[in-house]
Automatic annotation (TrEMBL), chains A, B:
InterPro entries for the chain: 3-oxoacid_CoA-transf_A, CoA_trans_fam_I, CoA_transf_BS, NagB/RpiA_transferase-like
Coiled-coil features, chain-numbered ranges: none
The protein's name: CoA transferase subunit A
Family: Belongs to the 3-oxoacid CoA-transferase subunit A family.
PANTHER family referenced in this protein's UniProt entry, alphabetically: ACETATE COA-TRANSFERASE SUBUNIT ALPHA, KETOACID-COENZYME A TRANSFERASE
UniProt keyword terms in alphabetical order: Transferase
GO molecular function per UniProt: transferase activity
From TrEMBL, chains C, D:
Lineage: Bacteria, Pseudomonadati, Pseudomonadota, Alphaproteobacteria, Sphingomonadales
SUPFAM superfamilies cross-referenced by the UniProt entry: NagB/RpiA/CoA transferase-like
Domain of life: Bacteria
Organism: Sphingomonas alba
Claim: Glycoprotein is one of the keywords in the record: no
Protein name: CoA transferase subunit B
Amino acid sequence: MQKIYPNAEAALEGLLFDGMLIAAGGFGLCGIPERLIDAIQASGVKDLTIASNNAGIDNEGLGKLLRTRQVKKMIASYVGENKEFERQYLAGELEVEFTPQGTLAERMRAGGAGIPGFYTKTGVGTQVAEGKEVKTFDGDDFILERGIRADLAIIKGWKADESGNLVFRKTARNFNQPAATSGKVCVAEVEEIVPVGSLDPDSIHLPSIYVKRLILGAPYDKKIEFRTVREREAA
Amino acid sequence: MQKIYPNAEAALEGLLFDGMLIAAGGFGLCGIPERLIDAIQASGVKDLTIASNNAGIDNEGLGKLLRTRQVKKMIASYVGENKEFERQYLAGELEVEFTPQGTLAERMRAGGAGIPGFYTKTGVGTQVAEGKEVKTFDGDDFILERGIRADLAIIKGWKADESGNLVFRKTARNFNQPAATSGKVCVAEVEEIVPVGSLDPDSIHLPSIYVKRLILGAPYDKKIEFRTVREREAA
Amino acid sequence: MATQVEAKGWDRNQMAARAAKELKDGYYVNLGIGIPTLVANNIPQGMTVTLQSENGMLGIGPFPYDDQVDPDLINAGKQTISELPNTSYFSSADSFAMIRGGHIDLAVLGGMEVSETGDLANWMVPGKMIKGMGGAMDLVAGVKKIIVVMEHTSKNGDPKFIPECTLPLTGKNVIDMIITDLAVFQRPDHDSPFRLIETAPGVSSQEIREKTTAHYVE
Amino acid sequence: MATQVEAKGWDRNQMAARAAKELKDGYYVNLGIGIPTLVANNIPQGMTVTLQSENGMLGIGPFPYDDQVDPDLINAGKQTISELPNTSYFSSADSFAMIRGGHIDLAVLGGMEVSETGDLANWMVPGKMIKGMGGAMDLVAGVKKIIVVMEHTSKNGDPKFIPECTLPLTGKNVIDMIITDLAVFQRPDHDSPFRLIETAPGVSSQEIREKTTAHYVE
C-alpha cells in the first residue's frame, strides 16, 4: 500500500470535481497546505465550497483560488486581510457562511467523528442562531450545529512516516487535525517523510488511517502575517 | 500555584460529597487511578454515580468501591469479570446505565467541551435508544446522547510536569483523557513528576489546564487481566 | 445430525480464513473477540492490513514474548499484546471518533443472531447477567463493512440467521456479510436481501435452506 | 469635552492594568487583540497566570527576539510569539473544547457596545465589510468570567454601555465586568444588574451617569 505520491498534482488525481466541498487546514498563513492549493488552482476545478478558518490573503493561501474565481462559497470564521475576497463578497459573487471559530473546528471534528449534529451555546441569541434549532438543556439554550463531512481534506503537516502517521509543529497544528478527520479522503503535504518506526507512537497527532495520500512539499518558504519582536536587553 | 499534593487523601480534600458524579479513567485494569480509588474508599463517601468504561474486578479498581457499597449507580459499557457487581446488580442494589463504549467516551468528551448533547447512529433501533430523541439527518436516523459533566474526574497518567501538563503511556491513555476533561475538577495520579520544561510541548496529551491537583502515585504494581504471550522461535 | 455438520463444515480457523479473503491491501480493520481474532493469523503475505483496537491503538502486533509483557499495552479484550513500527496510540474518544466516523474499512464480529434485514444481536440474553455491549454497537453503526462470523445453528440446532432477531439488538440493518461454519451470505447494500454466495465443502444449498429460516436469494 | 475626558480618565495601559487586578494565581486566561493584550504586561510578580491562544496553545511567551522568529509559532492575532517551559500545543478543535467547556477562568475582550443585560456587540457593523467573528462568540459563551475593556463613549461621544445593543450581538447576557477609560461596572451573576464599583481618578459618579444610558446600580 503506497501512500506517497511524487507531487501534489498526482496526489489529487481523481479526487477533484466541480461543486465539491473541501476542508482546508491552517490558521492565517500558518500551516496552510500550499502545494495542494497550488495544484487545485492549476486543475481549474470550480464552484468549490471551502471550509477553512480563514481565506488566505491576496495571492497567498486560499486567496489564490479566490483570485481565479474557483470558489463559490467559504465557510469561515474570519476573512480579514483579503481585498479580492472583499470585492467578490461585496459584489455578491462569493457566498460566505460565517461560523464561529470554535463551532467551525467542532463541526469538522464532528463530521469526522460520525456526529451529524451537536448543541452549543456559542452564538445563541445572535445572527449565527438564525434558522437553527434551539434546545434547552438544564435551563440553558443551545443551538444545533451540523457536522462537516468534506469530499476532500487538504492539510499541511510537519513530519509523516511512510505509513501516514503524522505530526504537526507548534501552532501549525490548528485546523489541520480536525480538517483531516472531516474528509472522506485526506491528502497531506509535509516537510519531511521519515521511515516507519521513526515517530513516537505515543505522540502521533494524526494516525495513519486519516492520511490516504501523502506528498513531500519541502522546501517551504513560510510566510508571516505579523512579524512582532522584542529587543534584546543590553548585556 | 501549587498543584502537587502529598498523597491521594490530601488531593481529594474538600472535593468529595455523597451523591456526587465521578468520572474515572481506565480500561479494564489498564490505567486506572488506583491511589485515588483507595482514598475514595477510605473517605467513606457514598451514593456515588460513577462513569467509567468498566467497573473493575473483584477487589481491584472500582470493584473496591462496589464491595463497600459506596456506589449507587454505574454508567459503563462493560461490567463482566466482577462477581460482587453481578450480585448487587441482580439484587437490584446497584443501578447500571449501559452505554456503548464509544458513546460513553464521547459523552465525557462532549461534557468537557461544553456540548450538552450530540447525535449518533450508535444504538439506533436498540434498547439504548429507548426514551431518547431520534432525529433524521440526510435520510438516516440518529439518537440524541447527553454530555457528561462530572463533579470530579479521577485519572491515572504516566508523567506530569510540575505545572500539570500530562502524558499517558501506550493503551493506558484510553478513557483517562476524556474523563479528565469532563470533570469540574480533575485530580490526577502519575508515575513520575518531572520539572516544567521536561516534556515536549508538541506531545502533551492533557494540557495543564485540566489537571487541578496532582499526586505521585508510584510505585505501582500494575495488574494484568489476561496475560497472553507467544513462544520465542528456537534460534 | 449435529456431529455430521461439524465434520463437513468449516472449523473456526477456516471460518476466520474465509473472512480474511475479504481483506484488501491498505485496509484498517477491527477484529472482535473469539473467531474474529483468528482473522489476524490469515492476512495474506505481502498485504498491509492495520488492526485497530477500540481502547486506543492502531497497528496491533502479536502477543508479546514472555519477557516483554507490558500491563500498559493491551487490546480491547484486555489481553497483553505488542506494538509494531507503525503503531499509534490515542484516547478512547479519538478511537471511537475513528470508528463512528466511518474511517475503519472492515469489522469482523461474532453474533448470536442475524436477521434477514441485517439486524445483529450479540450482546445480551434476557434473564442472564448483562455484561454490557462494550464497543459492539459503535462498531456496527460506524464501520464501513461488517462481517459476522458465527455457527450456522445454535447448540440445539436452531437457525441463527432468521427472519427477525428474538434477542435485543446490537444494531439495526448493519450487517453486510455472514460467514458461518456452513455458508457465506452477502448483500451489496443495506436495501438488498442477502444472497448465498458460497457453501462449505460437502455442504449443499439444500442443507443451507433446511437450516436457515431467514429469507435470502441464491 | 472629549479632550477633558481623555485627560482625566485611564489610558489604554491603565485600563489593562485595572483588568489585570482581576487575575488570580493559577488562572488560565484568554486575552483579545488590542487593549486586552496589554493585560499580559501587568501580571503581578509572583503570580502564575497561563495565557491561552485560540489557535492551539497554552502558555504564551513574549514576542520573540528577532533571530528567534518562527512562522509556526503565532498567536490568535497572527503575531509571532515565543513559548515558555510550560507551553503545550493542541488543535483548534481541542482549543475550543477547552474554551467552550468552561475551563478558561477569564477572558478579556474589546467591545463596541455592551447592554445593561450583559449583551456584547463587537464583531460587525452593518453596511461595513464583515471580517467575521473569529473566536469571540465561542469565548463569551464558554469562558467562566468575561471582562470587556472599551472606551466609555464612541468618538462622537455616544455612550457604549447602553440599554440595548444596536449592533449585531456577539453574545447574549455574557458579560460580567466592564472596564472603560472612566469607570468599572460589575455584576455578581447574569441575573443581576451591573453596579458601578469604581471611577477613574478625577471622574465623578455624576459624570458616569451623564455618559451612560444603560441602567446600573451604584
